[in-house]
Amino acid sequence: MAAPKTADILEPKHVCGTPMRVLVVEDNQDLNRHLTQGLREQGFAVDSVTDGLAGRQHAACDVYDVLIVDRMLPGLDGLEIVRELRACGVATPAIFLTALSAVRDRIEGLDAGGDDYLVKPFAFAELLARIRVLMRRRSNDPTSNVVQVADLKLDPVNRTVERRGRPIELSAKQFSLLHYLMRHAGHVVSRTMILERVWNFQFEGLTNVVDVHINRLRNKIDRPFDIPLIHTLRGVGYVLREP
User: Fold this and answer.
1) Partner of 47 for a Cys bridge, out of 7, 52, 123, 185, CB 3.0 to 4.6 A?
2) pLDDT surpassing 90 at residue 129
3) CA distance linking residue 63 with residue 59, whole number of Å
4) From its phi and psi, is residue 98 left (phi > 0), alpha (psi between -120 and 50) or beta?
């Protein structure tokens, strides 16, 4: 497999409805690929780089919700990246990954401005749990991010969806797609907009991937109920709206 490529920064800061954006700064290419793939499968929009200088450049743009930073990096180590970001006023939560497990190393990472510290080797599920904790901490009211349209409710922190109180199980991509539609409720979004925001530019050419996922989403969100919320405007796009 080829090494992960540095992705261009193309989105403005914290666009409503987009997947949570994560930057992975890890020079071990196997681990970098594993983290990037795993996070994307969970519905995150991920950029990845393999050296400290590129990591600082990306992170300084302040478009990310979480930074995952290895401590020992070529070009610029992880501690310096986070120290410089904090000095510039960038407060994006940062999780350090490192093989350095001594108490003094953890203290040094936290004092540098890190928000969490994960010692290698670690379980991917634990990393996901720590990301969720950081996201909950960022909000004084954990329920303030809940989105509701009519009788459909989505909780982006706990990643739950329900309609009329009935829980609905969605895949990671279906969840991201629904979140995007709900945050733009009442507004028509085109297939291109959906591909750019929900698939994070990870698509090739003109495909029917959006139509397929919309249909699957309707099977779970609309068809079991008497009032549809997702509507198609032929030749234009889709809109989620109250009846």
Assistant:
1) 7
2) yes
3) 7
4) beta
